[in-house]
Amino acid sequence: MKSTDTAGAAGNFYTAIIDRAVTAGVKAGMDYIETQSQKAKKERRDRRLHNTRLLLKNYRWLKVHADGAISTGKQARAATEERRSAAEILDDLDGIRYNDGLYIESIKKSQQRTAIIIAHIDKMLDYYKIDCENGGRPDELRRYRIVRALYIDPERKNAADVAEEENIERRTVYKDVNIAIGVLTTLIFGIDGIKTD
User: Domain residues of the chain, as ranges?
Assistant: First the structure.
């Protein structure tokens, strides 16, 4: 065998090893990228579920904020005067004056955003109710009632109270809430709320 044949065979051998190593490296890199992409999607979905749960848990307070935030001098004066007697108001006429033009921008923006979110949640709850009613399954409508009772209705109820009213176990209340939150996440966040794995 000639030395050039040996060198050629060795070169082919090393080229084959390099090709396999490159192929394996590219595959490992692509697998890693795909894994990271799936992980990011799951984290986004989990964040949306978490945000839906937070919106529901804080719904009553958000509604109070949207309805009652004071962002102008006129509103502040009215709120102050409601809490004070006529004598106190007359005594302080020479004191602090509210400027009707005073406008606290950050409170107003927060109030507007909150009002939009509350209106959106209310509308999505309406759609959820319609879907539950049209579903024809008692457990679907029960989930809607549970969400309303725990988070939306003015009268606060806990899981034990709801379980008793619905004649179910307390753990069923929590299971129903989790299922309802999954559906509401899709309604509230649209395509970003859909599980895509």
Answer: 57-192
